[in-house]
Amino acid sequence: MGIDVWISRSASQSPQSEAPVEAPFYFLLFNYQSVGICCSIGPEEATAPSDIRRFCDDIAFAISHRRELPTVNELRWPQTEGESTQDVVRVNTQGLPETVIVFGEKFANYLFDVEDVSGGSVYRVGEQRIFLGDDVSDYRGSPGAKKSLWINLNKAELIDGNSRT
To answer: What's the pLDDT score for residue 17?
Structure first.
């Protein structure tokens, strides 16, 4: 026996979930054992877009003359300023082989604090030789940009000029 008690309640308040923090940048680091390739792509991009993956595979093949399956690391970082951001980028790059190709001004800025990455500059950091190229999107569907990259890689003595790749 009992008396049902009905209490008027306001609509239940569900806790407001905070929107996930969107990483302002998305970096891909490919480790081919003989060469490392780093590139920055937009945070909205899918995980390692297939055309970028093929492009990086071709560059690695041109350098090492053998097909290798890379280890792919993705780096999404919510902070855009400060030493911790540079430290994260530098530590991840140090884990790559002796020869590293970096595509993109954004990645290069975090790695070296440099403004101009065009023209195929080469830097030495410890045992690593790091080649800086233009943004990876500049090479999408642009034979002229790819030819310029090929020439710059050859000048930097990263590829054999007689390669048939």
So the answer is: 53
Q: Are 40 and 135 in contact (CB under 8 A)?
A: yes
pLDDT tens digit sequence for 43-52: 777 678 899 9
Q: Which two tokens stand for residue 42?
A: 């937009």
Whether the CA torsion 109, 133, 60, 24 is positive or negative: it is positive
User: Residue ranges of the domains in the chain?
Assistant: 25-155
Question: Using 50, 70 and 90 to split pLDDT, how confident is the model at 117?
Answer: low
Torsion of CA 36, 40, 41, 46, to 10 degrees: 40
DSSP category for residue 98:
S
Which segments within 50-127 are labelled E, that is strand? 71-77, 99-103, 122-125
C-alpha–C-alpha distance, residues 143 and 12, integer Å: 60
**AA letter at 142:** S
The pTM for the full model equals 0.78
